[in-house]
């Protein structure tokens, strides 16, 4: 049983580290991204935040293009961070399932 406890402890530490990393992605997405986020029918992030306004760039001739480019960059970053969060969250759930299955198998053989 001691060997099993060591392995379960290692799984638990991995799960906690993954949970922490996923939480950091989620916090950044929610705190740094003004506006509500939803998902489309394919599960892709739809960022409903206020777009970057061209007026923040002053009287530049192409301030509208710059604002659109800045908005596109933030949308891409938000999507990538959302994917990282969802993958880490899924990995954490998977590790929890592995731990539960190991415990159940051990109970079945004890």
Protein described:
By secondary structure, this protein is mainly alpha-helical. Helix content is 70%, strand content 7%. It has two helices and two strands. The protein has a two-stranded antiparallel ribbon with strand order 1-2. The model has no long low-confidence stretch (mean pLDDT 86).
SS strand fraction: 5-15%
The gross shape turns out to be: elongated
Distance between the termini: 10 Å
Radius of gyration: 21 Å
Strand order of the largest sheet: 1-2
Indicate the low-confidence ranges by residue numbers. Answer: none
Order of helices and strands: HEEH
Please describe the biggest sheet, giving its number of strands, its sense, and whether it closes into a barrel. Answer: 2 strands, antiparallel
Decide which structural class fits the backbone: mainly alpha
Instruction: Report the total helices.
Output: 2
- What is the arithmetic mean of pLDDT? 86
Level of helix content?
over 70%
Tell me how many strands there are. Answer: 2
């Amino acid at each position: 049983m001691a060997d099993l406890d060591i392995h379960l402890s290692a799984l638990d530490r991995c799960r906690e580290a993954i949970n922490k990393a996923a939480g950091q992605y989620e916090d950044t997405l929610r705190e740094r991204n003004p506006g509500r986020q939803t998902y489309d029918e394919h599960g892709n992030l739809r960022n409903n935040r206020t777009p970057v306004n061209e007026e923040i760039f002053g009287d530049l001739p192409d301030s509208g293009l710059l604002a659109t480019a800045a908005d596109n960059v933030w949308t891409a970053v938000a999507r990538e961070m959302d994917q990282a969060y969802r993958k880490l969250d899924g990995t954490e759930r998977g590790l929890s399932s592995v731990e539960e299955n190991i415990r159940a198998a051990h109970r079945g053989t004890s």
